[in-house]
Amino acid sequence: MMRRSLRPQAEGYMLLLPALVVYLIFAFYPMIDVIRQSFSEWNGLDAQSRFVGWNNYRVVLTQDPVFWGALVNTVLWTLAAITLPNLIAFGLALALNQSLPARGTLRAIFYLPVIIASIAVATIWRWMYDPFFGLFNSLLTEWGMSGWIQDWLGNRKLALWSVFVAHLWSSVGFSMVLFLAGLQGVSQTLIEAARIDGAGRYAVFRHVTLPALGPTITIVLVLSLINSLKAFDIVYGMTGGGPAQSTQMLAMWAYTQAMQLGSFGRGAAVSVILLIITLVIVIPYLRWTLRRSTT
Amino acid sequence: MTLASRFFRQPGSAHLDPILVGLWISLIILAALWIAPFIFIVFTSLKSAAEVMGSSAFSPPADYAWENYSAAWQRGNFTTASFNSIIITAIKVPLGLFLSAMAAYALACVRMRWRKLFFVVVLFGTMIPFQVMLAPIFRQVNAFGLINTYPGIILPYLAFGVPYQVFILHGFFSAVPRELSEAARIDGASHFVIFRRIFLPISLPVLAALFILDFVATWNEFAMALVILQDSDMWTLPLGLMAFQSQFQSNYGQLNAAIVMTVLPAVIVYLIFQRYFVAGLVSGAVKE
């Protein structure tokens, strides 16, 4: 049989190629290249970088005064970010799945912070935390609770959690929408049947709703975990890692080492460590997603 | 009461449920807390410096200091910043969506060698936050001599936007019945024609959802712009806002006006296209 056009496979490659090439050059390659960079030193100005073996890792792991603190903060932040906002989001989704008036408006309100630029979220909260005229301290003064007044972002023990509250505000809506979507998939007939059979509110939740939400819960947990690693903008905008590195985190420390302190090699080493942590969590999820999308 | 006859009931029950009434009241209170920062920001943006310091946080502005907006616009150089944001978003969002749709079609509907491998490689990109490797991205863009240029920011935006969009569109295209494209192929249509005439039109609702999600994400992006757009003439609105915050931090009225102006476009888009937002998120993450 004669073909007047290209072979179908060639057409497929032509459709795939533009996106694939851009992706490979500007996203995939830097991901691989960062490994090479972590074994060399470059100050951002010289023409050539210099091979230094494991030296960057040695310096980062043993001599860097900030790295371990940043690692601990990253772990604490991540643990908090996958539990607290998601519990609130789950509660909101369950509540907003009931027959209540103004449901749509309420959902829209809880989702609204999600679409605010994270740097604007940082600016908004930094202003609310302002020690002199910010919202929190003004309200505390007005309510006669001056004893509670804090320098929310200036106190080393408090700053990380002050930033976290801003993150919570801006991320609850995202998980809530995912949970709501999952709840739509729970069969109403099944719930009514369980009710008629005399199951109470808790029994229905425990034995009908919760099992049906299994995949949704996995997705929300992984997405909020990836999101928590993205917590760069909000820290950069609110504290810049301070005071005294008490809100420093790995993604930002990698950036600071390379782009501000001019040590691309050490920055790359921090990036690689963070990438490995990410991959350990993400690869099982990737396989799970693949299995789901092929069935 | 009509309200009580329609709401506050458990499925299949005819009785008013007091627990649901209590739940609703607490939801209203929480929603008020959730939206309070916005009210505070808008009020402050309309207060003079003296009023910010003198009045209560949630008291409405006594007389509207609209000049905060014009002053912030000028001092923050927002004309340039909005122009850059508009150019970058207007090129990146449609182009990215088009490239992703083509690639997703190829991966879902064309029998090719290495198809599975390509799909895994692209899917991998959805899981890696680029915030983890800002400096390597800077180095790559720098190697092409594209720092401080529009292509220099648009290309990495495209690269990191492709995986998620391909993933979602791949799921959508895979669900389209085979017969549809096979019939067209027997009639002699090429894959380009099938893609443009059949698959693009039927995927319009998904494309609309992705378009809006991507518009907001691109408009709001900060970290990548921070490392690539270093010249203040190239800054986008988020960078402009950040610079404004560090320079004029104690000029509260103007700072809040700057926040409102940065945030407003995304809020308006969200309020208009609310439906699509949820559809876009959901089609990707849960239903797929």
Bulk shape of chain A: globular
What summary fits the major beta sheet of chain A?
2 strands, antiparallel
Q: From the alpha-carbon coordinates, what is the Rg of chain B to the nearest angstrom?
A: 24 Å
CATH architecture of the largest domain in chain B: Orthogonal Bundle
> How many structurally independent domains of chain A?
2
CATH topology label of the largest domain in chain A: MetI-like fold
| Helicity range of chain A | over 70%
Largest sheet of chain B: none
Helix and strand sequence of chain B: HHHHHHHHHHHHHH
Mean pLDDT of chain B: 87
Text of the CATH class of the largest domain in chain A: Mainly Alpha
CATH superfamily of the largest domain in chain A: MetI-like
**Which chain pair shows the most residues in contact?**
A-B, 107 and 112 residues
How many helices of chain B?
14
Overall form of chain B: flat
Main-sheet strand order of chain A equals: 1-2
The CATH class of the largest domain in chain B turns out to be: Mainly Alpha
Structural domains of chain B: how many: 2
The CATH superfamily of the largest domain in chain B appears as MetI-like
Strand content of chain B: under 5%
User: Level of helix content of chain B?
Assistant: over 70%
Report what the structure shows.
The complex is a heterodimer of chains A (about 300) and B (about 290). With about 300 residues, chain A is an all-alpha fold. Chain A folds into two domains: about 30-65 and about 265-295, no CATH class; about 70-245, MetI-like (MetI-like fold). Helices cover about 70% and strands about 0% of the residues of chain A. Chain A has helices at about 10-40, 55-65, 65-95, 105-110, 120-130, 135-140, 160-185, 190-195, 200-210, 215-230, 235-240, 250-260, 265-295, and strands at about 40, 50. In chain A, helix 1 runs antiparallel to helix 13 and helix 7 (about 160-185) packs antiparallel against helix 10 (about 215-230). With about 290 residues, chain B is mostly helical. In chain B, about 75% of the residues lie in helices and about 0% in strands. Chain B starts with a helix and ends with a helix. The chains are: A mainly alpha (about 300), B mainly alpha (about 290). The interface between A and B is large, with 107 and 112 residues.
